[in-house]
Every structure is written in C-alpha cells, then in structure tokens.
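User: For my dataset I need records formatted as: sequence, then structure tokens, nothing else. Please produce one.
Assistant:
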Amino acid sequence: MKNLKAIFVYSLLVFMSLSCKEKEVYETIAPLQQLEIQFKNNLWITALALDSLNASENIKDKRSYYLKARMNFKVCEPILSFVDASNYNFLNQPNIIKVNEEDFTDIKIDEPQGLQVIEELLFNNDNLDTEFLKQNVLITSMRLKLLHKNLTLKYLKEHHILWIIRDALNRVALTGITGFDSPVLTNSLEESKIVYTSLKEILSIYESQFQNKDLYHNWMKQIESSITFLAEKDFNTFDRYTFIKEHTHKALGIWNQTVTDWNITFPFKQPINYDVTNLFEKNTFNINYFTDQKENPLAEEKVQLGKMLFEDKTLSHNKTISCATCHKQELYFTDGLIKSPGTTRNSPTLFYAALQKGFFHDKRTGSLEGQIVEVVNNPNEFHLSLNDLEKRVLENEDYVATFKKVYAKGIDNHLIRNAIASYIMSLSPFNSKFDLNMQGKENTLTKNEINGFNLFMGKAKCATCHFAPLFNGLVPVAFKESELELIGVPKTKDTLQAILDDDLGRYGVYKTEERKYFFKTPTIRNIEKTAPYMHNGVYTTLEEIVDFYNKGGGFGLGFTLENQTLPFDKLNLTNQEKEDLVLFMKTLTDKL
C-alpha cells in the first residue's frame, strides 16, 4: 500500500505541479498533445487511487482513496464523456440495474459497476461486503487503465474542444449540482469545482488560439468566479438559481464569443442550438434533433394544418373523437380525468412532448408519428387503419387544397402524421414565469419560489429524474434517452393500508421482469394545470405529490420493490420546504 501511495503522490507532483524546466519543455508541445498527456495522466492517477483503495486495510483509508479517485475522475470527465461516452457512462453509472431492450430477441440486463457503486458500498453500507467491493474496484481500475493505454485525442479539432467545454458547462448546471451522480455523499459542489478547474486548464492549454486576449482573460475571471460561488455554501443551501443564471448563462455567452474568435464552423447541429446563451428559452433546443422530418417541422402553414387535423373528429371511426378530445388546450392538453376514456392511464400533457425520446407512459413508441399510429389503430380510440385515415382526409376538399400547398406532393398517411406531429412540436413555448425570470425579462420570482427551485434541484432530489430545463426524464447533456423509473405508485391515497397499483408499466412492452412497474418520467412543466397526477391519476394535488416523495415513494409506503429507482430514504423536508416546492412548480405554468 505504501508503494502505491508513493506512486500516486509522485505522479500527482510530476504531472500536476511540473518543475520550471519541465514546464518549459511541456509548453513547447502542441496544445492537443498537452491535453492528451494531462488527460491520460489523470486516468492513470484515478486507477492508482483505486488500487490503493483495494490494498488498504481499514475503511477510513479506503474512503480517502475513493475520494482521490473520484476527484481525479472529475478532472477527466469533460474529455472522457465526449471522446468515449460509453466508457464514461459505465464508470459513472448509477447503482441500479441497466436494462437494454432493443427488441424481443435482444434484451440485456447489466448489473451496475463503477464509481457510484463503490461510493454506495463504502459510504452507505454498515455491513461492507469487502469481496464485492474489491471486485468492483478492480473492474473499475482495469477499465481506467485500458482507457489510459488505448484512448487517443489525436483526432480532436478546435470545434471538438469547444463542444467539450459547452457540454461540461451544461452538465454541471443540469446534473452536476443536483447530486445526480453523487447520491450518497452529495459531494456535487466540490466535484463541480473540479470540473470548472479542468475547463480552466483546457482553456489555458489553448490560450494561443485566442485572437482576442481579453476574451481569454474573461474566461479565466468567469471560471474563477464560478469556482468561488460553488465554494460558498453546502449542498442543501446552495443557490442553484443564481448559479445557472449568473454563471452558466454568462459562460455560454463567452463560449459564443469564443466560437467567433476562433472562427469555428461546426459540421453539424447538436440537441442544443449553438447560439444559445440561456437554457430556458424557446429556441434553446434544436427541434430537428427530435424528429426525422427533413424540412422545417415548425413552418407555420404545416403547424396550422396539423392543428386542423388534431381537432378534427371526422378522422375517428365514429366521427366522435379527435386528438383534442383527450388533449384539450384549455386544460393544457390533458383531459382532466383520472383515466382517459378507452384507455387504462391518465392523459399526459402535450406541452413539451416533442422534446423527449420515447412516448406513452411505458415508452412503447420512439416518435410522435409512431404515437399517432397507435392512437389511430387503437380500437378504443380512433379505430381506423392508416389507409382509412388517408381516405377520410382525401374526402375533405379543404384538406386536399391545403396539403397541396404545404407539401406539394399531396396527401398520404405519412404526411398526415407528419403535420399532426409538427403541431405538437410547436407546443414548447418556454414562457412561464420561471422562464421569463431566467431570461431576464422579469424579476418577479419570490424568495420562496426561488428556494423551491433550489430544493427541487438539490435537497428534494427532484432534478435527478426531472432534469432541467425540460423538467422531464430526457437526460442531459446528450439528450439521447428519456428515463424510465420505478417509484412505487399506490392504487389509492390510503397510506395506512397502501396497495401498489397493478399497472405493470414498461413490463407490458417486452415482458422484462426487471421492468415491472416502470414508467417514463413526465415533464412537470404546467403541472399546476394538469391534475390528476401519476399514470393512474391517483393524486389530485401537488401537496400529495410532494408528500409521496418526501416519504420515500413506494418504499416509504411499505412496498418491497427491489428495483425502485427512487432513493429509499425520506427527504425530511420541513413544512415550509414543502410549500416552497409547490410554489416553484406553479411558476412553470405557461401562458396559453
């Protein structure tokens, strides 16, 4: 153990605190080579710390080495998450089973491994399974050493460096400061400081790239200011509202200036538009990332045609219902019922529905168009074939003329779905009180509402599933997956003799045992107007929702759910904190 510790300290001194002579030689190396040396060195240091953990005899030393490993991993995070997202996710995955359901013939169940698993074993386990810990540490260390040996940054260009920086800024704001990947220690603020320090080092390596040296110094000042702000308070009292508004958004502004200064042209678009300096605006997201439509899906004439189809009852078998029957605009595109007629579940809002990956409560379709197909074919809803739907539209002369104008080629069932989907895509206004305050157009949030947001993003752990800025399950910063969660929803409000709701959720799609009672995480935007809540409509007030989570979800109600993804422990919110949470959620109500 002493030898490993000596190696660790020596490596840290050699690479992180270079001597003057070494530094002179180091700085003659091209920026990308410098970056690779530092990056791979930190991978190695992380692995060595884990080796020392395994070699240690007492729990105190093991925990100390874990923290060293974790902090060095966070130094690597901005680059590793970009150049090898698969291995980054493996090393940093939550301590819950991972189910991959490609199709009925390709279902994989993977047990969690990596740093979060080690953290829970070391810091949240009175009866430590030392052999299990040793195996996990060894696997994690070996993966890091393999990356150290094989990864290269040689292909990176200047635009990749800017992508790395922007992803890291957004990751800290949207998951880093929430406790998303430090669920036991909630060491998120310290880890976020490390990430910002890493960004500072990356920018210093690329200082020569700046034409405007003042811009480089603005970066340094902003990062130092952010690090200082992160150091001011503990996890539960940290002001995340101010951090995002005054630090993340300002850094995104400097990032955009850097794009111009470096004369960067990006080869393709990303989920978040490049000119964004605010994460809570209507133009934040690139809608084309969420659809297969080739043309502009938000073209006004296309959206209006989609609205006509959405509200047309003649497109159902008995000409008695339309999409708007279960998604009424005045009810924020819900129907206000516990369960929609002809279905077994509550009707979710369509606001922000386009900005996710997966549709229906059980995520059984992967696109808006696919969702429309299911509704059309469902015998309890439209009860039509796609060909019959096409015939209904062709019978309407106004539709024939409008389709010809909008699509040129005329009418087919694909374009019908295309138009309806475009209308739904238009329903992401970002004009709530909270958004307008984040945008700087208003200064109307009360102290309690801001505290509610800070609780939502911190102590109450809401944002570890409902990710800002959409407050749904779409995981930042790749935005490739909408999460499914098992929270243990009861059948009734009875808390004394609680009964688990019998809807098996995602299990009904692939019959995967480990997916029983899993449901997609919905948005809480406009939640004030979209009661009743949960897939079964069991709760009718926001206070009931907060109370459910405060108890620890289904576990707190007495359900034995091995795969519950919600933390089992109570949140221990005060009455005032519960009130503030509700007040914040009400600020997410859009203007119709």
